[in-house]
Design a protein that fits this description.
mainly alpha, about 55 residues
Length: about 55
C-alpha cells in the first residue's frame, strides 16, 4: 500500500511540475477538463480503496 501511495505522490509531483511549466489554464480550459480531472481523482480513490482492503 505504501508503495502505491508513493507512486501516486511521484505522479502528482510530476504533474505539478509539468503544469507549472505551462501557462496557467484559462477558465474555459479548466471547465472543459473538469470531468476528466474528477474522473481521474475518483479512479485513484477507487484504486486506493481496493488496495487497502485486506
Amino acid at each position: 500500500m505504501d508503495y502505491v501511495i508513493n507512486l501516486l505522490r511521484i505522479e502528482l509531483a510530476k504533474n505539478r511540475s509539468h503544469r507549472s511549466a505551462n501557462t496557467k489554464l484559462s477558465t474555459d480550459q479548466l471547465k472543459a477538463n473538469l470531468p476528466r480531472i474528477i474522473s481521474e481523482g475518483e479512479q485513484i480513490r477507487a484504486a486506493i480503496k481496493i488496495l487497502s482492503t485486506p
